[in-house]
Design a protein that fits this description.
The chain is of the alpha/beta class. 29% of the residues lie in helices and 20% in strands. The longest helix is centred in the C-terminal third of the chain and has 16 residues.
Length: 373
């Protein structure tokens, strides 16, 4: 049974017992420092928040983790991978500017930001996983080449996975830009940014793209497109978006399983050198990828830490469900203690990611919760 440590939020914190000091004690209790060698590169995998979001994980918490890692002799850096959709984090240049605008730069955080899959999302390592859905997965190279990883996750709701926790952070969050499309199974959709260069036609392995003689733009044959994402990698005009409205090739449960297999690839070869911190604060109904932030659905709970990815997510969702929902938020049903907040919120069977994660060896759903003072 895996241990999950928790530092609860105290409504009457004192200087010696503020949340940052609690986070430091949580790090020490986890025993992660013993696995770190001097000068090892440690990726702090987080989410910098989309432009317009306001409840992403605050830089001060990342700085505390970086401070703890430096105290262990490590050389930490903050990281995430580019988004598939075109917004403020779809290439490394925009991604870095977004991170800086949200406070992820010195002196707020004394660890550099490295976009794990490079300028355009092409910088990845193909990692064998022999999963149910994937034989191999494409992991951002900076994460793969890091000696160790600390996952710092803002725990919240998500329309596809029910909740977004450590599995989502390490699965979808470590996938290269185009691999994210493959996980979702959203077919390619050509926008009016297309200039008719034809690069996507030449690269498509399924011959699913051709040029439209009337518009001079590329067009996609939905019956042939298998959501591989190669076209997006080779479009320098960012003219190919996921067709979210047209539906995914997979159910939301299948997508969760695919995310879990990517999470498996992201930590392969790092046994004993990965730690997970779930921040159960500002538990918003939607992901930090949205360019807004709605009201939290429960009160702040605290910070959880474990070396088991599945256990820390299981404990997190259990603790949220034990809370009383906050009236007047997007949570209209399931507000009572013990009721399933995320199923009521997003109508998603969120257990699929946990069950599949346990099945493929990510971790165990059974856990021991250890409360620290």
């Amino acid at each position: 049974m895996s241990k999950v440590f928790i530092m609860s939020v105290d409504a009457h914190e004192k200087k010696e017992n503020n949340l940052l000091n609690k986070l430091g004690r949580l790090y020490d209790s986890l025993g992660f420092a013993s696995s770190i060698k001097v000068n090892e590169l440690v990726a702090i995998k987080t989410h910098f928040g989309e432009e317009g979001a306001t409840r992403y994980l605050r830089p001060m918490y990342l700085e505390k983790l970086a401070e703890c890692l430096r105290g262990s002799g490590a050389r930490p850096f903050l990281t995430d991978t580019n988004t598939y959709y075109v917004d403020h984090r779809h290439n490394a240049l925009e991604h870095l500017f977004t991170a800086m605008r949200h406070g992820f730069y010195p002196p707020a955080v004394s660890a550099p930001v490295v976009v794990a899959d490079g300028l355009l999302g092409w910088d990845y390592v193909e990692v064998p996983v022999d999963g149910v859905h994937f034989d191999s997965v494409k992991i951002g190279s900076a994460i793969w080449h890091a000696n160790a990883v600390v996952a710092a996750t803002h725990f919240k709701g998500h329309v596809v996975t029910g909740f977004g926790g450590a599995i989502k952070n390490m699965g979808m969050g470590c996938a290269s830009r185009a691999a994210k499309l493959t996980i979702h199974g959203a077919r390619a959709l050509v926008s009016d940014r297309c200039n008719g260069c034809g690069a996507c036609v030449d690269i498509c392995p399924r011959d699913a793209i051709s040029m439209d003689g009337n518009t001079g733009r590329a067009k996609v044959d939905r019956d042939l497109c298998d959501s591989c994402g190669e076209c997006s990698l080779h479009c320098f005009n960012d003219a190919i978006d996921p067709d979210w409205e047209g539906g995914s090739l997979y159910t939301r449960e299948e997508t969760q399983e695919r995310i879990a297999e990517y999470a498996l690839g992201s930590v392969k070869g790092k046994t004993g050198k990965v730690a997970y911190f779930n921040f159960l604060m500002d538990v918003t109904p939607e992901c930090d990828c949205e360019p807004w932030a709605d009201h939290p659905i429960v009160k702040d709970i605290g910070i959880l830490a474990s070396t088991d990815m599945v256990a820390v997510d299981e404990a997190s969702v259990d603790l949220v469900n034990q809370q009383e929902g906050i009236p007047g938020t997007m949570l209209k049903q399931g507000l009572g203690r013990g009721e399933d907040k995320f199923r009521a919120l997003n109508k998603v069977n969120w257990e699929a990611q946990l069950a599949h994660g346990e099945r493929i060896g990510l971790g165990a759903r059974e856990y021991e919760l250890v409360e620290l003072e």
